[in-house]
Amino acid sequence: MAGAWSVVSFSIESTTPDRSTDILFAIGLMQVPVVISILARYKENGTKHTLSDSELRGIKLVDYFSPNNPLPGEWDITTDENEFDYVMLGRMSEAELFATGTAKVGGASDCQNIIFWVSTLKVEHKNIAASVREPSGDDAHTGVTSSFNSRVIITSVAPPRVTIDDVETTRSPESFTAWIDNP
Description:
By secondary structure, the protein is mainly beta. The chain has a single domain, classed as Immunoglobulin-like, CATH 2.60.40. The protein contains three helices and ten strands; from the N terminus they run E-E-E-E-H-E-E-H-E-E-E-E-H. It has helices spanning 53-57, 94-99, 173-181, and strands spanning 5-14, 21-25, 32-42, 48-49, 60-63, 75-78, 112-120, 124-133, 139-141, 152-157. Strands 1, 3, 4, 6 and 7 form a five-stranded antiparallel β-sheet that branches. Strand 8 (124-133) and strand 9 (139-141) form a beta hairpin. The protein is elongated.
């Protein structure tokens, strides 16, 4: 169906139990997921518009207090999860998150979801909102001045310093000798 659509539901969440905060080490490799839920409808008849992959990837993460400003260059946003494994206690799985999504319309979740992976090298608290350009040229966003008002607060912290003094090694000559002597 062709025509102009507009956003009728829009939210941003973390995958932690409170859905609004997350924490990561500011090492550039650790990522935290941020979930965007969006529902768009055609203006002329109110039917649901399913955003294309291109339209979903057109969603931007922006500063919550200044939604016209993209996140600074120290913050990296991608739809691709990297290969580094990191486990943060209390994070919900994708299935749990989508099954209990907060973006509800008419009592059922009609929203589309996309996950952005966020990382940074900068130590700071960042209030993050989402923004998308509608066909009319207007930007719908979840910033502080929007009716969709929602945000995630990502806190990036300095990684712990680890020195050689923090490493403990144990040598076990008996098992090493036994391993060599027993073919």
